């Protein structure tokens, strides 16, 4: 009887250990399987829907599994977004379980103005970003008449000035690329000037993967290796095989399974799915739905 009792006790103990191990293993697996980063969306993709119905559109965005959004269209006079005050817009985000890590601000309009005007606008951007709890203020564009070497050098100086102001306010600052930064000007291009003449501690880079592949004719990792840790935000979108226009994720030629694993080298903190146009059905909401589904099925495991 005693031996039977000991055997039964050992069996129960071992069973308990096995169950505990299974729970630990399951918990560890869940931790590993959980995405490291929030799935983001650049709201410019759905600009028409945002103009018509801000509240309803954000509700649909959240329902698709997006967790973070990048804003555009800041109103400095009202410190507002999409016709609402920053406070009201932030509450709308919270109501839908959304956050906003970054915003595209119209800083390019102040490239050629006196520095006092530029910094006055920067201070307004800082106030808006703070009210939304954004981590980054992003310079998104450069006017066509300003895309020459002299203006790129002026841009680099202005980026450093803005970066210092934004950092002092406790926020981050980044520059977003398109295609024009990679036009050759006698052996040098604008992106090289930005990378060389801006302080990496003050000016981070938001990499648009589509334009890197299409315009720079390189892979993102080529830039990551040059300045590891500087590419804190990414725009993720695909390129049509025939036209090289935007297309929905998975329908194009950019192989993100080879790009996303380099997030650590890049220093990536946030990413945003984006599609500027060429929507397959003509409706941007259909495209962000398709992009979200593809990303969650095929790519999110890398991030």
UniProtKB/TrEMBL annotation:
SUPFAM superfamilies given in the database record: Xylose isomerase-like (SSF51658)
Coiled-coil regions listed: none
Alphabetical keyword list: Isomerase, Signal
Annotated Gene3D superfamilies: Divalent-metal-dependent TIM barrel enzymes
Domain Xylose isomerase-like TIM barrel span(s) in chain numbering: 59-267
Entry-linked PANTHER family: HYDROXYPYRUVATE ISOMERASE (PTHR12110), INOSOSE DEHYDRATASE (PTHR12110:SF41)
Name assigned to this protein: Sugar phosphate isomerase/epimerase
Annotated source species: Chitinophaga fulva
